[in-house]
Design a protein that fits this description.
Layout: H1 22-44, H2 50-57, H3 65-88, H4 90-110, H5 114-142, H6 145-176, H7 181-184, H8 186-200, H9 215-236, H10 244-266, H11 280-310, H12 315-320, H13 323-343, H14 347-366, H15 372-399, H16 406-440, H17 449-459, H18 462-487, H19 489-495
Length: 507
């Protein structure tokens, strides 16, 4: 079939349309990698720039919400983009997500108050949430399942690499230019992604029948997830978990989640087909991805703090020490993709990666972070282990659902990852603050605990510094043991994932 022929839907065995040759697939992949780079980078790129940003915009009390607002917004819209992609086509929805993201990036760069910044970050999250889920679904449209692990490995590697190296990029831009360049840098990358993807994706099929959109389901789901994540985030920022405000948020989340489930069972065209979760592969792999990002984002945020407090490393040095993990994640994803392509199986790589993660986290709990090389080797091992899990879990889900549910199934995996990262940051930060407060006493309580300790370490006596080093190192060790205990769930789940042969031709 020639390139001028009208697009046709992929065949049931997972093969892409015959006219999409290697050159067209490569063009699509390049555009998708740029889109995912944008969506993932902005989750963490501002973390090193927050102090300078709050000083310029006079809003230290709202500092944490610069990160949280983006994460909450991007999480709640992920399944919505997946459904809209199934209804109206991936090309249109990816272009819409990119345009929203770029316009909001300009708003962030031009913000004059912290309120303006948070509002722009919410809108940016609404665009960023669609970039990753739609991009991963497009790969399923153009690559056979048997070969998909290799490409999903590239995409998972870009996502994980962006999440971990964001603080490094943000630190360099803030130090040498301005924190506003953390947002200006999105414009050339986003425009390139938009131009490349729109041209390459012109060959993708577009649905000819317009089905109804579940607007009520979208409102119920968004309300439930927003209140849940805000409650968890506020707990992580120091609010008591049993305070009336937090309990009201959790209660609201439960009520709207219940209403969402009831409505989805009755909706003509449900936003999230609940029957997907009767599929054991979908349910188990979503939980595995949740746990993987729970620990990945936790390490990406907490390890730099540990380097700064315990090893007294400057912020830029602490960010650079994440490089071993950030480099090994795409390596692990690449290995997983090659193994799946050759063997046609995904469960062996899942089991190996899931089993290694708790071992590496336990090792991080005991290692002396002032010893650079042992710490780097353990973090590299953690990166490989996490990289092995992501593409294998995603391909397992895509291999187990019919094509008409491919978009929402893929978006559900992206939603699981985002939710895992959001809950991981909030929960682990909350446990860290509580442990530090219990070990160090009332002098370091509340949301400014880590800032106060950094200030004391920088200006205190040698005895005070040594005491704080020991206290904080023990607290961080406790956090990673908690993470290791939670990560032990993943290999158990991976053992029960159905090990079906991948559909489509071998590479």
């Amino acid at each position: 079939m020639s390139a001028a022929a009208s697009p046709a839907a992929p065949s049931p065995d997972g093969r892409p349309p015959e006219y999409l040759g290697d050159a067209a697939v490569r063009s699509i992949i390049i555009g998708l990698m740029l889109a995912i780079l944008l969506g993932a980078l902005d989750q963490t790129i501002v973390s090193v720039a927050l102090a300078r940003m709050a000083e310029d915009l006079h809003g230290f009390e709202l500092l944490a919400w610069v990160v949280s607002s983006y994460l909450v917004a991007s999480t709640v819209v992920t399944p919505i983009y997946g459904k809209l992609g199934d209804l109206f086509g991936r090309r249109l929805m990816l272009s819409c997500a990119l345009c929203v993201f770029l316009l909001a990036s300009v708003g962030c760069a031009l913000a004059q108050t912290m309120g303006q910044m948070i509002a722009a970050r919410v809108i940016q999250g609404l665009g960023g949430g669609g970039l990753i889920s739609i991009a991963q679904t497009i790969i399923a449209d153009v690559v056979p399942l048997r070969e998909r692990g290799r490409y999903q490995g590239y995409i998972s590697g870009v996502f994980a690499l962006s999440s971990v190296t964001g603080p490094v990029v943000g630190g360099l831009l803030t130090h040498y230019l301005s924190w506003r360049w953390c947002f200006w840098i999105n414009l050339p990358l986003g425009l390139a992604a938009l131009l490349i993807s729109r041209r390459a994706l012109a060959l993708l099929p577009v649905p000819g029948v317009r089905r109804p959109i579940d607007y009520l389901g979208a409102v119920l789901l968004t309300t439930a997830l927003t209140t849940l994540l805000i409650g968890i985030t506020r707990t992580g920022h120091g609010d008591a978990w049993n305070s009336s405000a937090i309990l009201e948020l959790y209660g609201t989340a439960i009520v709207f989640a219940t209403l969402f489930v009831i409505w989805e069972k009755r909706a003509r065209e449900p936003l999230v087909p609940l029957h997907l979760f009767r599929n054991r592969a979908v349910t188990l792999c979503c939980v595995i991805l949740f746990l993987g990002f729970f620990n990945l984002i936790g390490m990406a945020v907490l390890m730099p703090l540990r380097f700064q407090i315990v090893a007294e490393a400057p912020a830029n040095v602490a960010a650079w020490r994440l490089v071993p993990m950030s480099l090994m994640i795409p390596c692990g994803a690449f290995v997983a993709g090659r193994l799946m392509m050759k063997s046609g199986r995904y469960r062996p790589t899942q089991l190996v990666g899931a089993a290694l993660v708790p071992i590496m986290l336990a090792a991080l709990a005991w290692v002396d972070v002032r010893s650079v090389w042992p710490c780097a080797l353990i973090m590299a091992g953690a990166g490989i282990a996490i990289g092995l899990q992501f593409p294998s879990a995603l391909v397992a889900v895509q291999n187990s659902v019919p094509y008409e549910h491919l978009g929402i199934a893929t978006a559900t995996t992206a939603f699981s990852r985002s939710l895992g990262g959001a809950i991981g940051i909030a929960l682990l930060s909350s446990v860290l603050l509580a442990t530090l407060h219990a070990n160090a006493g009332s002098a370091y309580g509340g949301v400014n605990t880590l800032h106060d300790m950094l200030t004391e370490i920088a200006s205190g006596s040698a005895a005070t510094r040594a005491e704080l080093h020991a206290t904080t190192d023990a607290a961080f060790g406790h956090i990673f043991l908690v993470g290791a205990a939670i990560a032990l769930i993943a290999p158990v789940l991976a053992w029960f994932v159905p090990d079906r042969a991948l559909r489509g031709r071998a590479g």
